[in-house]
Design a protein that fits this description.
alpha/beta, disordered C terminus, four-stranded antiparallel sheet, 11 strands, 18 helices, single chain, about 575 residues
Length: about 575
């Protein structure tokens, strides 16, 4: 451990200090990766615990770097959910890798602000070239290449990509009118399915259209958008005076990885002049594997396309790959050139300025980490990683299909499997499934999430981390079965206890009824004897008024038989 260093009044880290502490940071990261599987996947802290571990005021003077590293372990690590853990099977994978981290380190060290070509030509041209490489690796249409009418760019997220796709579509649909006069929310409409990511509706709100502009297109049994339903909705809206702007088709929906049929949706969009945007945030990168490209058949119809290298392609967040077939629509919607950004290269129209391809002005040199990853793994290494995840997920689905405790809830073409546990009759299945989920996550070995499929809660198991092996998937499957068995037994015991308690209450009520009957019947018999004695007295002659003999007579005109009086006495007990 290095000794504390004197803190100068202007504590800039020297290159030699950076070299030494940089080695320490790299060692810390390598040690973290080595031990991450020994940590609970999901943070065990309660709200406010991290802040409680921090001082109320910032330091007045700089501190030794050792203190910063120590607080990583003391404060930060306990408050992390470990996305690089082999038991992280939640959401979608969001994995990094050694080459990606080193590429990010170089990018951070260079500190490039690549908003325009002139601010660092390498930041722009390397990005153009890498995006062209990836377009080829994914089998995307040639219109998406920078050498054609379109091109690619690295966005911060697919949520941001969905927004800029919508803005480009509005620009094209309005003939540029939205740039000058803004949007007309009562005119334009956008089409999604119930399975489309929520970021598309958020984009509609940000663009100023409002949620009322969103049309929900019906899905089929596999939860994919129905082309005939889309056509019907488009025709109905056009007849009512609306102008359809964009259809968002999804390849690999968030809930189940359902795939919308691009080959059928494309002609529908063409016939109505509607921009077809493909959100393939999770699943798009799977197309590096040739045998999986059939999931995206018809992608040539797309006007824009997005997929996340930071999910399943070993590149740290953020690294969204976004392409358009017509870059003029995109830059027409987003370009603005103040005088202080003017330069000869831009004025000549000879270069791409990526500031016109995104919401923000500034941008990091994200292409470096993609370049590092691709050069380290090569195309074959990336294919092997995707194939491994798919194979493990398919094996898990096979185990579930062969087990009478679980159902596979939806098609699973890639590395996500949705499982619906089976529960005994009388058990609320949604409550039971969520209880199982929390039991698993609280255990610390795995972290899963849930969704709903056709109104029922299901468990999502998303494979994809480079550290996740068959042994980890087997362990998750064992925990699922053990958790199910424990809960099923607990539910059965609770049901049996309720049944026993119910039986005991019925038995107690029956005993009380019998006891009441035993208490009341002798009293009725005594009363009958008294009436008989009274009758004997009457036979001897009338008794004086107010004597005991009057108390035995009924108020009605006729005498009541003794048997009926006994019955009445018994009925009076409520039996």
């Amino acid at each position: 451990m290095s000794q504390p260093e004197p803190t100068p009044s202007a504590p800039h880290m020297t290159p030699e200090q950076f070299r030494r502490h940089g080695h320490e940071v790299v060692d810390w990261i390598a040690d973290y990766w080595t031990r991450v599987d020994s940590l609970p996947v999901r943070s065990q802290l309660s709200p406010g615990d991290v802040r409680a571990a921090l001082p109320e005021a910032p330091p007045e003077r700089g501190e030794p770097f050792d203190a910063v590293l120590a607080d990583l372990d003391r404060v930060v690590v306990p408050g992390l959910t470990h996305w690089q853990h082999p038991g992280f099977l939640a959401y979608f994978p969001a994995n990094t890798s050694g080459p990606s981290v080193l590429g990010d380190l170089v990018s951070a060290g260079l500190g490039v602000q690549g908003m325009s070509w002139v601010t660092s030509p390498a930041a722009t041209e390397l990005e153009q070239h890498v995006l062209d490489w990836f377009a080829g690796l994914l089998g995307l249409p040639e219109t998406f290449l920078s050498t054609g009418t379109g091109g690619g760019v690295v966005q911060d997220s697919s949520s941001g990509a969905n927004l800029v796709a919508l803005l480009a579509a509005l620009h094209r649909a309005s003939g540029g009118g939205t740039v000058r006069g803004g949007v007309r929310p009562d005119e334009y409409t956008v089409y999604v399915s119930a399975e489309t990511h929520s970021s598309m509706e958020k984009a509609v709100r940000i663009a100023g259209l409002g949620s009322d502009a969103v049309r929900i297109v019906e899905v089929d049994g596999d939860l994919a958008m129905r082309p005939q339903s889309l056509r019907a909705r488009l025709e109905r809206d056009v007849a009512r005076g609306y102008r359809p702007v964009l259809v968002c088709a999804t390849v690999g929906t968030t809930s189940t990885t359902a795939v919308d049929p691009l080959a059928e949706l494309g002609p529908v969009c063409r016939d109505h002049g509607v921009w077809l945007h493909v959100d393939a945030a999770y699943a798009g990168v799977s197309a590096v594997v040739p045998e999986l490209r059939g999931l995206q058949a018809g992608v040539g119809w797309a006007d824009s396309y997005t997929t996340d290298a930071h999910k399943w392609l070993l590149t740290g967040f953020d690294a969204t790959l976004f392409w358009v077939a017509d870059r003029a629509a995109l830059t027409g919607a987003l370009a603005i050139l103040p005088e202080y950004l003017r330069n000869a290269a831009t004025d000549a129209g000879a270069v791409v300025d990526y500031r016109d391809w995104q919401i923000e002005l500034g941008r990091r040199f994200r292409a470096l980490k993609l370049w590092f990853v691709l050069r380290w793994y090569g195309a074959e290494g990336l294919r092997a990683h995707v194939r491994d995840g798919v194979a493990l997920a398919q094996e898990l689905a096979g185990w579930a299909r062969a087990d009478d405790r679980f159902d596979v809830a939806a098609p699973h073409p890639l590395s996500l499997v949705c499982l619906r546990p089976r529960w005994a009759e009388g058990v609320d299945p949604d409550v039971a499934t969520m209880t199982l989920l929390e039991r698993l996550n609280d255990g610390g070995e795995v972290f899963l999430t849930h969704t709903t499929v056709r109104g029922q809660v299901v468990l999502r198991v998303a494979v994809g981390a480079p550290t996740t092996t068959r042994a980890h998937v087997e362990r998750a499957w064992t925990l699922l079965r053990e958790g199910h068995d424990w809960l099923a037994a607990d539910f059965a015991e609770s049901a049996a206890e309720r049944a026993r308690a119910h039986a005991e209450r019925r038995a107690a009520a029956a005993r009380a009824h019998e006891e009441a009957a035993r208490v009341e019947v002798p009293a009725a018999q005594d009363e009958t004897a008294a009436q008989a004695s009274t009758q004997e007295g009457l036979a001897e002659g009338p008794a004086p008024a107010g004597t005991v003999a009057d108390a035995g007579r009924p108020e009605a005109d006729g005498d009541v038989p003794a048997e009926e009086e006994a019955d009445a006495a018994v009925r009076g007990t409520g039996s």
